[in-house]
Write a structure and sequence with these properties.
Elements (H helix, E strand, L loop, with lengths): L3 H14 L25 E4 L3 E2 L6 E5 L2 E4 L3 E8 L10 E8 L2 E8 L12 E7 L23 E3 L10 E4 L11 E5 L7 E5 L6 E2 L16 E5 L4 E9 L8 E8 L9 E2 L9 E2 L4 E4 L2 E7 L2 E4 L7 H7 L9 E4 L2 E3 L35 E4 L2 E8 L7 E8 L4 E5 L4 E5 L2 E3 L3 E20 L19 E6 L16 E18 L1
């Protein structure tokens, strides 16, 4: 047990040396007051990766901020340029199956009612998530040819919003490895299955769910953390098609029997039209569900009539605008909206200020050792309709950021299993990070204080934290602890304690 005098000496020494800031950094010139006794039970982290996209693990921040990062546009991923695709192609899903990436989307050349007979479901493929091709599948004759990339046709209304996913439930039959839901309020949501993701059959006759508006992309997945299928579907706040477009959730143990949909909550945030939800587990931390909705602003006109005409915007689609926002959930009926600002703005391209041009694809996928990609529609309702690819650093949705003058922060109490603390971290050449292990009451643990910490400088997706006596934390596994970070000109994106 560390004595009080030892702890005080460690604290004074740590404050004096933390990141070389000395007395010039007022934020670190004295040990912060001891945090109040924890009221909630410690967060059970285990050995999983924790992202800083919500307040689950973040305690007190002193001189540092939680920052959202903006996806970087990399150019066109796919043109919707086939005769059966066109200006109203949409509701894109991107998923990875081993070394193969698949993209599914609605092909629709002309405006019309939801579920019209000219809608088809198209497919594109990639080996890296960057360069995409449209395979000639020969499965359906469309526009007079079988030389096309269509995986579903002639089954209205299901190509309107066909949303596949790779079913990761243990023991799922191989012929049902891919599943999808599709339908409108008239048909209900109908389930489909496929062994290869190309040849689809109805999983059962009749809808599996009838309670919902469904007039958008309704997305489902197997949740390993909740041990059920989770479905995020389109509803309206006023019931029927009244009020605001919003999201509800239903669950199922078997994909056949679904619970009554429950409206999602969004914390203390203003009610907005959320056209889609695009909710899915983050592949590196599947207990965290990412959601990239399109925030829709009906009647908020930005394009002039002359601009819309010059762009070829279909009449009726020049009077609204939209953009992508970022939310998360850890299950249940609550979304966390830590950041209300746009995740992807419409930007300088006037074609993206037309209606519904802010619709993000379902799916964030890895496209490099330190890179992940997401995709967003562009130029909706225009002859030039296409899909853009954006990139982020792996885990890089948000970070705890420290300025040059330095700062520090403390986690909430948590328990872990594992041996080494690993950080996804980036510092400047002049910056750095030091780490302290504390007990649940905020008292530094001998041998793991800031004074003992080996300063971390550099940039890595996984960087092991060391103290002068080593990196092993296994003796504190299962005990409630906190972490204190003293940072200068640095970003901390994620952490985990690995075995």
């Amino acid at each position: 047990m560390q004595t009080k005098s030892t702890a005080e000496r460690s604290t004074r020494l740590a404050v004096g040396i933390a990141l070389g800031l000395g007395a010039a950094a007022g934020i670190l010139s004295a040990q912060p007051s001891a945090p109040p006794a924890p009221q909630a039970p410690p967060v059970a982290v285990g050995s999983r990766l924790e992202l800083f996209v919500d307040d689950v693990l973040i305690g007190r921040l002193d001189g540092v901020t939680l920052e959202r990062h903006e996806p970087v546009p990399t150019g066109v991923a796919l043109h919707f340029d086939r005769p059966w695709e066109g200006a109203f192609s949409g509701y894109v899903t991107v998923l990875r199956d081993g070394d193969l990436f698949r993209m599914y989307y609605r092909g629709k050349p002309r405006a019309g009612r939801d579920g019209s007979s000219d809608e088809v479901t198209c497919c594109a493929e990639s080996n890296d998530g960057i360069t995409w091709t449209k395979p000639g599948l020969g499965l359906f004759e469309v526009h007079g040819t079988r030389d096309n990339n269509v995986v579903l046709a002639g089954q209205p209304p299901f190509s309107h919003n066909f949303a596949p996913f790779l079913d990761t439930r243990p023991g799922v039959p191989r012929e049902e490895r891919f599943k999808a839901l599709a339908g409108t309020s008239q048909s209900g949501l109908v389930a489909f299955a496929s062994a290869d993701g190309l040849r689809w059959r109805r999983w059962r006759e009749g809808p599996v769910l009838t309670r919902g508006a469904f007039d958008s992309q309704n997305v489902a997945f197997w949740s390993a953390s909740e041990q059920c299928y989770a479905l995020y579907l389109r509803t309206w706040t006023g019931g029927g098609f009244r009020g605001f477009r919003t999201v509800s959730r239903a669950t199922s143990p078997d994909f056949a029997n679904w619970s009554e949909p429950v409206p999602m909550t969004f914390g203390d945030t203003p009610t907005e039209h959320l056209y889609t939800s695009q909710t899915h587990p983050y592949w590196r931390a599947p207990h965290v569900y990412l959601a990239l909705p399109m925030r829709f602003l009906p009647g908020r006109k930005v394009l002039t009539g002359e601009q819309a005409k010059a762009l070829g915007v279909d009449p009726g689609y020049g009077g609204d605008c939209a953009e992508t926002v970022f939310m998360t959930s850890r299950g249940g009926s609550r979304f966390t909206r830590t950041f209300m600002e746009a995740f992807i703005r419409p930007g300088l391209d006037p074609g993206n200020w037309a209606s519904r041009a802010g619709m993000t694809a379902l799916g964030v996928v890895p496209t490099g050792p330190a890179e992940m990609s997401l995709y967003k529609q562009a130029h909706y309702a225009q002859p030039s309709a296409h899909l853009l690819r954006y990139t982020l650093r792996t885990d890089g949705f948000a970070s705890v950021r420290a300025p040059y003058r330095g700062g520090q922060w403390v986690t909430k109490p948590f328990t872990f299993t594992g041996r080494q603390l690993v950080l996804n971290v980036s510092t400047s050449a002049a910056g750095g990070v030091r780490t302290e292990l504390q007990d649940a009451g905020g008292r530094p643990i001998a041998g793991r204080t800031l004074a003992d910490s080996v300063e971390l400088v550099g940039d890595a997706i996984e960087r092991v934290v060391f103290w002068t006596s080593g990196s092993d934390l296994s003796r504190w596994a299962g005990q409630p602890v906190r972490l204190r970070f003293a940072m200068k000109d640095a970003d901390l994106y994620a952490l985990r304690v690995r075995p």
